Amino acid sequence: MKILTNLVSVFVIIIIAFLIIPLPAFFLDFMFIFNIAISLIILMIAMYIKETLEFSVFPALMLVTTLIRLSLSISSTRMILTNQGQAGQVIATFGDFVLAGNPVVGFIVFIIIIIVNLLVITKGAERVAEVSARFTLDAMPGKQMAIDADLNSGLIDEQEARARRSKIQREADFFGSMDGATKFVKGDAIANIIITLVNFIGGVVIGMVTSGMPFAQVLSVYSIATVGDGLVSQVPAILIATATGMIVTRASSEDSLANVLTQQMFSQPMALIIAGSSIALMAFIPGAPVLQILFISAIILTLGIVLRNSKVRAMQTAGAGADGAPLPEDIPEMLNEANYYKNIENVYGLLNVDPIEMEFGYSLVPLVDESSGGSFIDRIVMFRKQFATEYGVVIPTVRLRDNGLLNPNQYVVKLKGEEIGKGEILVDYYLALDPGGASEDVDGIDTIEPAYGIPAKWITEDMRETAEVYGYTVIDPLSVIVTHMSELIKQHVHELLSRQDISSLLENVSKQNPAVVADVIPNVVSIGDLQKILCNLLREGVPIKDMETILETLGDYGTGLKDTDMLTEYVRQRLRRTITRQYVSGNVLKVVTIDQDVEQAILGSIKKGEHGTYMALEPEKVQVIVGNLIENINAIKDIVSVPVVLTSPIVRIYLKKMLDQFNPNITVLSFSEIDPNVQIQALANVQF
Questions:
Q1: How far is the C-alpha of 8 from the C-alpha of 496, rounded, in Å?
Q2: For residue 192, how many other CB atoms are within 10 A of its CB?
């Protein structure tokens, strides 16, 4: 292999030398044939590759083949002008074949061939290469995001992700190179026109002035040599230009161009039948070549009918597969979309939804794309770690997508396919929040902070230091998105906890305390009931990290009690230190208490049904309790950031359910959930 590599390097040097060194006619014939063979090989490779990167050397090869053609053209020009139009058998054969005894007609045909190559094939390939390069570069961020999302979800490993990123980079480099390499083909075509004119005009002048030949003989000799030399160069040029067009106009496929072309061209037999019938009608035109028309029409009609019958048989086979029989592997490739989804198993593949999904407008893609310097994936990883440490729940994969239908500055957060929040970000700005003590106002674009709904301003980077001096909290755009996403996940984490997650949590506990898991699950509490209890805790922001305590509590009370709401209350009481820590400040818990008469009214309205207990309080009393409670909370909101309502243990669950209908963000605790070492300070009391 090393010897072959060295030979290629020496060959390139020899080709460059041909620009100066005169070549004998025999060797020139050999090189012309070699040039045509190389060009034909390149065309065949371009047809049979499945992906463009399989022929990534093509841009460099275009330069080498262009150099070969120019070197041979210069050598043949030298021989034509110095050897009275005699430049070898290949040039003479091509010239005689095209001219066919008529120099004028031959020249016209030759000029048409050059124009077709220059203006149609070469120009088209150049334009497509330019557009492909631009689109490939524009699509890189979205592809990088898809790779990062798959890596984050565990669908691929780091090695596969690295290979995919490398492939995307090589594709961008390839199409960028193709954009420039097509200029070689265009320049070669223009140079060939100039060389042809030089050969003919120079040959006529030399033949008449130096050699003294008659004009008719000069015209015959040098026209044959000129056309032959031009054709010998144009044939490989057309082959290379065609290969260029094939490579830049096709997308990656699972098969070669020949197979894909065959499958897609003949996938609609009715189109062939209609086309064949239409061609047959041309036979009725007076003077039309009836024999040729009917021959072609018969071939197309026969092909269409055969393909239609084959497709009907395939559809029948697909119907058998939909009823339970296995569908052959090659049938989905032959059938259209409707037939493919007749197999119900294929429909199930459409039902999968991502637990968490984020969509971004194109202006925000650089913020989350690693290749553009974005650190969004790393921020998600760190948030997952922090959330697991704080709440005891592992956040599932966050699927990232770019969405061209969104506002360029907009992002959307989805939970199981449905939108739960959205916001708009100005990429080159910073978000300035006034925590309440800003000394002066700053110039900026008024907005609302998406996570907490606080009035804020978008400010430019040069205003950042000034805003911080004035007392504003300045946040970068990426932190705004991450904060909003994290708050939405905290609000809906109870919806994300699946039974599979429960099984994973139990496996983790079993590594440290297998006895408690074996004793409680499923003998005392089923997986489903445990999921309900844990979701109840997470819904009110209670961490479930201490799974051993939760399971032990369920083991103590679960044998005689099956109400998951009441079991949740017992678990909350065991987790009182964890709950207290969330709301206490300086060992003092500031609360709003509930009057005893209100608690008695709630207790008196509790009814027992088939599925547990429920509260049946009169609507008028509910309105009075809720109204007074909200009024008291608003009165102390400047004193405490998170108001806490404190009531008796048996009333807490019913009061919380009642308040959730009006304001689900109100925290309700019972006396049994407060650490005894904490001092309670009542700021208000709710009465009738």
A1: 61
A2: 22
3-state secondary structure of 585: strand
- What the block records as the tokens of 328 is 């052959």
Average model confidence (pLDDT) across the chain: 78
What's the confidence (pLDDT) of residue 216?
Answer: 64
Buried b (16+ CB within 10 A) or exposed e, 628-663: bbbebbeeeeeebeebbbbbeeebbbbbbebbeeee
CA 515 vs CA 316, 499, 518, 581, 616: distances in Å = 57, 21, 5, 29, 42
Q: What is the DSSP string of 404-447?
A: TTS-TTEEEEEETTEEEEEEE--TTEEEEE--S--SS----EEE
Between CA 151 and CA 400 the distance in angstroms is 11
Hey, which residues does 418 pair with through a beta bridge?
415
Q: What does the pLDDT look like over 412-453, one tens digit per residue?
A: 999 988 899 999 988 888 998 887 767 788 888 888 888 888
Three-state DSSP state, 457: strand
Query: 91 and 33 in contact (C-beta within 8 Å)?
Result: no
Residue among 428, 425, 424, 436 nearest 463 (CA): 428
Q: Please identify which residue in the block is written with the tokens 């499923």.
A: 522
How crowded is residue 616: how many other Cβ atoms within 10 Å of its Cβ?
9
CA-based nearest residue to 142, from 350, 356, 406, 475: 406
3-class DSSP assignment, residue 629: helix
Residue 99: predicted pLDDT = 61
What mean pLDDT is predicted for residues 96-103? 63
Contact 86, 31 (CB under 8 A): no
Closest alpha carbon to 645 in 662, 661, 665:
665
Which pairs from 190-197 meet CB under 8 Å and 24+ separation?
Answer: 190/118, 191/70, 191/73, 192/69, 192/73, 192/114, 192/230, 192/233, 192/234, 192/237, 193/114, 193/118, 195/73, 195/74, 195/77, 195/229, 195/230, 195/233, 196/110, 196/114, 196/226, 196/227, 196/229, 196/230
Contact residues for 675 (Cβ-Cβ < 8 A; gap 6+): 576, 577, 580, 584
Cis peptide before 326 (omega within 30 of 0): no
Reply yes or no on whether the pLDDT at 252 is more than 60: no
- Interval 212-235 mean pLDDT: 70
Helices and strands of the chain, counted as H and E runs = 27, 14
Contact 627/635 with Cβ under 8 angstroms? no
Phi, psi at 364, each rounded to 5°: -90, -10
- pLDDT-derived band at 163 (thresholds 50, 70, 90) equals confident
| Cα 152 to Cα 599: distance, rounded to the nearest angstrom | 49
Where do we find the tokens 């609302």?
Answer: 448
Q: What is the DSSP string of 123-181?
A: HHHHHHHHHHHHHHHHHHHHHHHHHHHHHHHTSS-HHHHHHHHHHHHHHHHHHHHHHHH
User: Is residue 81 within 8 Å of residue 206, measured between CB atoms?
Assistant: yes
The answer to whether residues 494 and 538 touch, using CB atoms and an 8 Å cutoff, is yes
Q: Coil, strand, or helix at residue 684?
A: strand
Which residues touch 334 (CB under 8 Å, ≥6 apart)?
263, 267, 311, 314
